[in-house]
Amino acid sequence: MDALYTAVATATHGRDGRAVSNDGRIDVKLAPPVELGGNGEGTNPEQLFAAGYAACFGSALGLVGRQAKVDVSEAAVTAEVGIGKQGDGFGLKVTLRVELPDTLDEATGRKLVDQAHQVCPYSNATRGNIDVDLVIE
């Protein structure tokens, strides 16, 4: 694959540090959530992953919608990223909640969401590695 764009970010001190993009547009304090024993006074990698996945999936849905000549511009995607023990380490699971326009029938909506899941780079990166549930709301 030839990259069309490469994002660059650096994190220091793991979950108790800071993450900064090379262009300075992202500069966030990191902290583990309370549920993982942290103080919750910063963002965490799961939130960042959820934001990126939701945005990327929304763009993929827009692409397949345009190709099908179906307006999904009012769709919203919420990504829920869970972390938990998996073997000796940790694993992730994802639920993508896709809110489609009321004007879209259920069959067309399901087809577009499934197609978006095939073209979304995050979906392609996680396929076979992370359980991803697609929920249409």
Give a written overview of the molecule:
The structure is a single chain. The chain is an alpha+beta fold and 137 residues long. It is built from 3 helices and 6 strands; from the N terminus they run βββαββααβ. The strands form 2 sheets. The protein has a 3-stranded antiparallel sheet, with no helix packed on it. A 3-stranded mixed sheet has the order 4-5-6, covered by helices on one side. A hairpin with a 2-residue loop joins β4 and β5 (89-99). The protein starts with 8 loop residues before the first strand and ends with a strand. The relative contact order is 0.13. The model has no long low-confidence stretch (mean pLDDT 97).
The side-by-side strand order for the widest beta sheet comes to 1-2-3
- Helix content percent band: 25-40%
Note the gap between the termini: 34 Å
Order of SSEs: EEEHEEHHE
Shape: globular
Q: Say what oligomer this is.
A: single chain
Count the E strands: 6
Radius of gyration: 17 Å
Write the layout of secondary structure elements.
Elements: E1 9-12, E2 18-21, E3 27-29, H1 45-67, E4 76-86, E5 89-99, H2 106-119, H3 121-126, E6 131-136
Parallel strand pairs: 5-6
Antiparallel strand pairs: 1-2, 2-3, 4-5
Helix pairs in contact: 1-2
Summarize the structure.
The chain is of the alpha+beta class and 137 residues long. It has 3 helices and 6 strands.
Task: Note the main attributes of this structure.
single chain, 137 residues, alpha+beta, 3-stranded antiparallel beta sheet, 3-stranded mixed beta sheet
